[in-house]
From TrEMBL:
Keywords: Aminoacyl-tRNA synthetase, ATP-binding, Cytoplasm, Ligase, Nucleotide-binding, Protein biosynthesis. Belongs to the class-II aminoacyl-tRNA synthetase family. It is an enzyme of class 6 (ligase). SUPFAM superfamilies: HD-domain/PDEase-like. The gene is glyS. GO terms for molecular function: arginine-tRNA ligase activity; ATP binding; glycine-tRNA ligase activity. The lineage of its organism: Bacteria, Pseudomonadati, Nitrospirota, Nitrospiria, Nitrospirales. This is Glycine--tRNA ligase beta subunit. Signal peptide: none annotated. It comes from the Bacteria. It comes from Candidatus Nitrobium versatile. Residues 581-676 form the DALR anticodon binding domain. GO terms for biological process: arginyl-tRNA aminoacylation; glycyl-tRNA aminoacylation. GO terms for cellular component: cytosol.
Length: 685
């Protein structure tokens, strides 16, 4: 079927860049939704956005897709009498839909069978349907903030000035809020403001480019990044890559032109992160650094004009950045006059949470947890860790962090270093919020890891204690993300601490009567996080189920080691037959506690030899588990396979003598208990 190009452009006042990324996606989704609803046959639908326009381009067939509509009628038992003759209900239904009784279909629905009229729907020409589709599309576009502009009834993110709509180079006629669709567009607001005709919709992108508008965001992004890198290279520097900033400036401009600027060298005395934040946050400049990662006094700004206007842009950019840097220097110099330790008293005046006390009380809780962790995991750094934990939140009172909250922790690290505190403390303060998200880098030191871990543990314990655990999609305190951070820290640092004991310590700061219940809820919460994390790492479902119970009672880093051991074990030729032997054990092993095996009650050689071998391998298995050698422990356990099978084949477990039966069940239970020190092998398929 012949197709033609559909072109829709909604021209507006400047739309905030933060809204445009989602609007491109939404516009395409809405078009696909309405195309399906109106049976339009489309291909290669693309959407674009600049600050002044939202654009859709798609190939659409000339006619709708043919369709057959199902119209459900009366139940068959009401449509025909006992003789099988149609009732008035059936006749009326057929007549209404222009069909004979014999043309009606019968279909099941629920517990009944119904008459169904299959009515063909006419396939209209696409050009007849598009006005309604495009009108619906525009009216369905939503933004985080929309309002009515002037006397308009249309709610939109910014005032709409024009609507270009063509199909096969012909106007698609419709009207929204007094704005009639046209076949004209406009170029750059200042460089090509006059309206012009779009005679060939296939040349739309090039036509706009000739009028100083690069409509494709990906092309603008490429121009920005390539141009900025080239300018950086011209001064022997490299761009400080920032995807978030790149995305933002891409949607700030229609005709990007990177411009190189500079600032006085004296400002390089300020912390690197502070300079970058000022340039990025206030001015949307890209910072440049040398080959050693040290900041240079150059920057790149992305202008929205032609190259021949660069000098004016550069001078303006250099002029406005100086007062920003001066403000930053003032805050920084003022902050350094107060020691971090002296700010502790001020933390007592800042409420962290009405039920959790002040920031000072939170700092004391973090320090208590950190001291406990450091004592067990890095005792030689215990003093530095505890000091860092206590000072962790002091930079929240600094002028720089109040102005730039994203620099919390980082500035504390700088202030600590300038005070002469140890590098371990300074690094711990700067890394205390890592990892901030899944996949983020981890603290580089034990002190940083312990402080970060302790802060997250306190947050989780505090909100669970108050009954504010995440529910459904609601997670206002980002507790799921913090739990993943805890898992990453414990796993990568290989800290020999269990989730259970960590939360028992974290909750010691609160006087609650249901501590055991809250700890249980937290352990379960972590198990729910661990399951998908381990699945995403490629481990089989059944193997995960076999090791997940250890999340409560064993260090988390051992879970992957157990899983790797199970993977290796499954490659063994005898693994399947060994699992069958263990299955025999699990099928009959008592659930309740049993007394130790009484050797005087062992009557048959099969049970005696099995007992001797179990007694022999048990200390060796325990020793291997102490060294986290789970595969070796499994291999040793496999040596019991033939003895287990002979025992079951030759010995009657359920002896009439209750003492003998109980003794044999005790032997079986000892084998099960030994295996379950490694994994719950009953979960393996």
């Amino acid at each position: 079927m012949q197709n033609a190009l559909l072109l829709l452009e909604v021209g507006t006042e400047e739309i905030p860049a933060r809204f445009l990324v989602d609007s491109v996606v939404k516009m395409k989704e809405l078009f696909e939704k309405f195309s399906a609803e109106y049976r339009l046959i489309c291909s290669s639908a693309r959407t674009y956005a600049t600050p002044r326009r939202l654009t859709l381009i798609a190939e659409v067939d000339a006619s709708q897709k043919a369709a057959e509509k199902e119209i459900w009628g009366p139940p068959v038992n009401a449509a025909f009498d006992k003789e099988g003759m149609p009732t008035k209900a059936a006749e009326a239904f057929a007549r209404t839909n222009g069909l004979e009784i014999g043309q009606l279909a019968r279909k099941e629905k629920g517990k009944g069978v119904y008459l169904v009229a299959l009515v063909k729907e006419d396939a209209h020409k696409t050009e007849e349907v598009l006005p309604e589709v495009l009108q619906k599309l525009i009216l369905s576009l939503t933004f985080p903030k929309s309002m009515r502009w002037g006397n308009s009834d249309l709610r939109f993110v910014r005032p709409v000035h024009w609507i270009l709509a063509t199909y096969g180079n012909k106007r698609v006629p419709f009207e929204i809020d007094g704005i009639k669709s046209i076949t004209m567009t406009r170029g750059h607001r200042f460089l090509a403001p006059a309206p012009f005709e779009v005679r060939d919709s296939r040349s739309y992108v090039n036509l706009l480019r000739n009028n100083f508008v690069v409509v494709d965001p990906e092309e603008r992004k490429r121009i920005i990044i390539e141009g900025a890198r080239k300018l950086a290279s011209s001064v022997n520097a490299a761009l400080v890559e920032d995807e978030e900033l790149l995305q933002h400036v891409t949607f700030l401009v229609e005709y990007p032109a990177p411009v190189l600027g500079t600032f006085p060298v004296e400002y390089l005395a300020l912390p690197k992160e502070l300079l970058i934040t000022v340039m990025k946050g206030h001015q949307k400049y890209f910072a440049l650094q040398d080959s050693l990662g040290k900041l240079t006094n150059y920057f790149v700004i992305i202008s929205n004009t032609k190259q021949d206007n660069q000098e004016t842009i550069r001078k303006g950019a250099e002029r406005v950045i100086k007062p920003r840097f001066e403000d930053a220097r003032f805050y920084y110099d003022t902050d350094r006059k107060v020691k971090l330790e002296d700010r502790l008293e001020e933390l007592k005046k800042v409420i962290y949470h009405e039920r959790l006390g002040t920031l000072y009380e939170k700092s004391r809780r973090i320090a208590s947890i950190a001291d406990f962790v450091a004592e067990k995991c890095c005792p030689e750094k215990r003093k530095d860790v505890t000091t860092a934990a206590l000072l962790a939140k002091t930079d929240l009172l600094s002028g720089v962090v109040r102005e730039f909250p994203e620099l919390q922790g980082i500035m504390g690290g700088y202030y600590a270093a300038q005070e002469g505190l140890s590098e371990e403390i300074a690094r711990a303060l700067s890394e205390q919020y890592l990892p901030a998200f899944s996949g983020d880098r981890l603290p580089s030191t034990d002190a940083g890891a312990v402080v970060s871990l302790s802060d997250k543990l306190d947050n989780l314990a505090s909100f669970f204690m108050m009954g504010q655990a995440p529910t459904g999609s609601e997670d206002p305190f980002a507790l799921r993300r913090q739990a993943i951070g805890v898992i990453s820290l414990l796993t990568e640092r290989r800290y020999a601490l269990t989730i259970e004991e960590l939360f028992e310590r974290a909750l010691d700061s609160f006087r609650i009567g249901n501590k055991e219940q809250v700890v249980g809820e937290l352990v379960k919460f972590f198990e729910q996080r661990l399951d998908p994390l381990l699945q995403s790492a490629g481990y089989p479902f059944d193997a995960i189920a076999a090791v997940l119970p250890f999340a409560k009672e064993a260090p988390l880093y051992t879970l992957k080691e157990r899983l790797n051991a199970l993977q290796q074990f499954r490659q063994e030729a005898d693994s399947a037959s060994f699992l069958l032997a263990i299955k025999r054990v699990n099928n009959i092993a008592p659930k309740e506690d049993v007394p130790p095996v009484d050797t005087s009650l062992l009557a048959y050689e099969e049970e005696k030899s099995l007992y001797r071998e179990v007694e022999h391998v048990t200390p060796h298995v325990s020793s291997l588990l102490q060294e986290n050698k789970y595969y070796d422990a499994l291999k040793l356990l496999m040596t019991l396979k033939d003895l287990i099978n002979r025992f079951f084949d030759k010995v009657l477990i359920m002896d009439k003598d209750e003492r003998i039966k109980g003794n044999r069940l005790s032997l079986i239970r000892s084998i099960q208990a030994l295996a379950r020190q490694i994994a719950d092998l009953s979960k393996l398929g």
